[in-house]
TrEMBL record:
Designated name of the protein: LPS-assembly protein LptD
Family: Belongs to the LptD family.
GO cellular component, one term: cell outer membrane
Superkingdom assignment: Bacteria
Organism: Kordiimonas sediminis
Function: Involved in the assembly of lipopolysaccharide (LPS) at the surface of the outer membrane.
Gene expressing this chain: lptD
Xref: Pfam families: LptD
Length: 735
């Protein structure tokens, strides 16, 4: 046999196998196992490896035969066969005897016989089996490939992504699709089934004349997503059938018709698009449902109910960008009744911001939609505009950092008071570290606020209104924070104890409590803010006068155990906190004591305990405990929260006491099974249930199935306590 004939044999067979099998039948480009190279001996291309026990050539007939443990490797494919025959005159090639094509990703194609015709443009295979890297398989009685059409046709085929034992013909997958005919369109990267049966554990459960889904090379494609079936106290039996449509690589949409037995049809939708300079995600829902009064009794007729939201960002330049998060619902209870969200307030936020090195400026518009029964639309504020600016010059006077800040706010209410505020501030700060490790942080600042209030007689909450309609205040402050972290190292651990003292000097203002509090209503003293210079979260609530804050932090780091303990308290030297600070932990000369304890052991125990104690009685005013025990296989989380402000006047929603316990648990067993559950109990005025849930799920390489029971005890207008049951099924590659 001439070198040309040998080369023709190898190149033709390998090219044919690559085209006819690897590309035609579900495979991505890949490379296979090693073979003994004899390219130099045979005078072949260096990229071809070939070995066989024997090679024969018949010059008269043009037949070339490679016999015995034939191994071919070229351009990423490794072909194993007992024998390969090729005829130069007809262009036909046949691979025989446990033919196996190994691919780069670890997948392989197995068949007893492979025939290639028409100069390797088409191929025919019997009893073919394609084993993918994830264990999924495609098997067929026979298959053919047409290179011109880039189309593979399989007859009497079976597809399943479930792992089965390839050597055990009786091993049934969890689910599979059997079809009279399966066509794989390489260009569309899609599988088309004709007369297909869906089987679970070998039992046919669904027949369809046609079915299609993307092949494994597709990351995202149009089609149905997993269905959801559940029962709901308000909606009855609920069936959701989401359909996902891909417009292009940068945009897609999901539409979900939801059928309910009690409220009819609900349609939800989500649209996503990525632009060269930003992205947009918008979703919403719509339905026409029976009108109901506040007692959940039908009042006749139907009404529109729905919601819409949108979020995203756009970069206008390297300096400027816009971000937005917009939300709207047709009424207070819609989102909770239809189980879309538990939110009690919807926030609409648009921000236009610019970045200049370390400096920053932004203009925002903020609007809120209150969904609680006590919320009054006319008294709900919206901000237009809210401007923030911060300038940090490169100049470092006395080695410190200078900050110049500004803020402007116009707060409007349709039927209540309006607030306008302008703030200007400047500060200088520097850190000193001594040779002994003592750290001193020095800060000097000055700030002025100008207020104007319209319709002060119509407040949304009298507890925060103050008594000044128009006023200006100027505050100056000098503070120094001393800390001395002392570290002791052992062989396998270390201890750190850090005493902290912060001294703040500021004048006392006579009218400190005359200003309205719009942006710091939920403030209270905690372990997180006790050493902050501005402990209230906003601008309206301001601590005047001088104070001393003191405490310590201890930390232990060992091989298995890490622990941190922190305690702190503040003493007011001068000034009066007044009524606006009542219940915050700062309503006396000595503040409440705040602290935290955190303990972790390896990766299966974590304790986080944060608390606030009354400075005189040591009564617990705030107690927040979270304990997690376990790992990914099994875990229990326990939580307890108590807030006792000890208030007698103006006990409104933001200042109300509450107490609750929480518990969740999860347990994974038999590798694929998972149990989970949780409970929330309200202890504020008794032992009232809030929510209970328990669920079980199964997940393996080809199927996800879950069942959850949920019991809720919330009652709010047309929302009543009830039980929900959710069933979810997902088949890999099908949805």
């Amino acid at each position: 046999m001439t070198k040309t004939a040998k080369k023709t044999l190898l190149s033709s067979v390998v090219d044919g196998c690559a085209a006819a099998i690897a590309v035609g039948i579900f495979c991505a480009p890949s490379v296979g196992a090693q073979a003994v190279s004899s390219a130099e001996v045979l005078g072949l291309q260096s990229s071809v490896d070939f070995s066989a026990d024997k090679i024969t050539y018949n010059a008269e007939t043009g037949d070339v035969r490679a016999l015995g443990q034939v191994v071919l490797k070229r351009d990423g494919f490794t072909l194993l066969a007992g024998e390969i025959r090729y005829n130069e005159q007809t262009g036909k090639a046949v691979a025989l005897g446990a033919v196996e094509l190994q691919l780069k990703d670890g997948s392989r194609i197995v068949a007893p016989r492979l025939e290639m015709n028409d100069n390797l443009k088409s191929a025919f295979v019997q009893d073919i089996r394609f084993v993918m890297t994830d264990g999924g398989q495609v098997a067929a009685a026979e298959g053919s490939y047409d290179q011109d059409k880039a189309e593979t046709v399989l007859k009497r085929a079976v597809y399943s992504p479930c792992k089965v034992c390839i050597d055990d013909p009786d091993d049934e997958p969890v689910w599979q699709i059997k079809a009279v005919k399966v066509t794989h369109d390489k260009n569309k990267r899609r599988l088309y089934y004709k007369d297909a049966f869906l089987e679970f554990l070998g039992v046919p459960v669904l027949w369809t004349p046609t079915l299609s889904h993307p092949d494994p090379t597709v990351d995202r494609a149009s089609g149905f997503l997993p269905f959801e079936i559940k029962t709901n106290k308000h909606l009855g039996l609920v069936l959701g059938a989401p359909y996902h449509h891909v417009f292009s690589k940068s945009k897609d949409m999901t539409v979900t018709p939801i059928l309910t037995t009690q409220e009819g049809l609900v349609v939800t939708g989500e649209y996503r698009q990525r632009f060269s300079d930003g992205q947009l995600v918008t979703d919403g829902s719509i339905t026409y449902a029976d009108k109901r009064d506040q007692n959940n009794i039908k009042s006749g007729g139907q009404e529109f109910r729905g919601n819409i939201s949108a979020e995203g960002y756009f970069n206008h330049s390297d300096t400027w960008r816009s971000t937005f998060d917009l939300n709207w619902a047709s009424d207070d209870t819609y989102l909770r009744r239809y189980d879309f969200s538990d939110a009690d307030t919807l926030v609409n936020d648009y921000k236009f911001e610019g970045f200049y090195g370390s400096s920053y400026i932004s203009a925002r518009a903020l609007a809120f939609q209150g969904l609680r029964l006590e919320d009054v639309t006319g008294l709900t504020a919206f901000a237009l505009p809210l401007i923030d600016a911060e300038f940090i010059p490169d100049y470092r006077p006395l080695g410190g950092v200078v900050r110049i800040e500004g803020n402007a706010l116009a707060l409007h209410r349709l039927d209540g008071l309006d607030t306008q505020r302008v703030t200007a501030a400047a500060s200088w700060e520097r850190r000193f570290v001594s040779s002994a490790g003592v750290v001193l942080d020095v800060n000097a600042s000055v700030r002025s606020d100008a207020y104007n209030i319209d319709d002060i007689e119509y407040p949304d909450d009298p507890a925060y209104v103050g008594n000044a309609e128009s006023d200006v205040r100027t505050m100056a402050r000098l503070s120094g924070r001393f800390s001395w972290p002392l570290v002791k190292y052992g062989e396998t651990n270390s201890h750190t104890i850090e005493p902290i003292v912060e001294v703040t000097v500021a004048p006392t203002r006579r009218n400190a409590q005359s200003f309205i509090n719009e942006d710091s209503r939920s403030f209270e003293l905690t372990d997180r803010n006790i050493f902050s210079l501005d402990r209230p979260t906003g601008y309206d609530l301001y601590e005047d006068g001088s104070r001393v804050t003191y405490g310590f932090r201890w930390q232990y780091d060992g091989e298995d155990v890490q622990t941190e303990v922190m305690l702190g308290q503040s003493w007011q030297v001068s000034g009066d906190y007044g009524a606006l600070f009542t219940g915050t932990g700062l309503d006396g000369d000595s503040s409440d004591i705040v602290g935290r304890t955190q303990v972790s052991y390896r990766d299966w125990l974590f304790l986080d305990h944060r608390y606030r104690l009354d400075d005189s009685k040591l009564a617990v005013r705030r107690n927040d405990i979270d304990l997690t025990i376990g790992n990914e296989e099994r875990s229990v989380t326990l939580g307890y929260f108590k807030l006792n402000r000890d208030l007698t006047d103006f006990v409104t929603g933001d200042r109300a006491d509450r107490e609750e316990i929480r518990a969740t648990g999860s347990y994974r067993f038999y590798k694929n099974w998972h149990l989970s559950g949780g409970v929330i109990q309200d202890l504020t005025s008794g032992f009232d249930g809030v929510e209970y849930n328990i669920g079980a799920s199964y997940k393996d390489e080809c199927i996800e199935i879950g069942l959850q029971f949920r019991e809720t005890y919330t009652r709010d207008r047309d929302i009543v306590p009830g039980t929900s049951i959710l069933f979810r099924l997902k088949l890999k590659n099908l949805g």
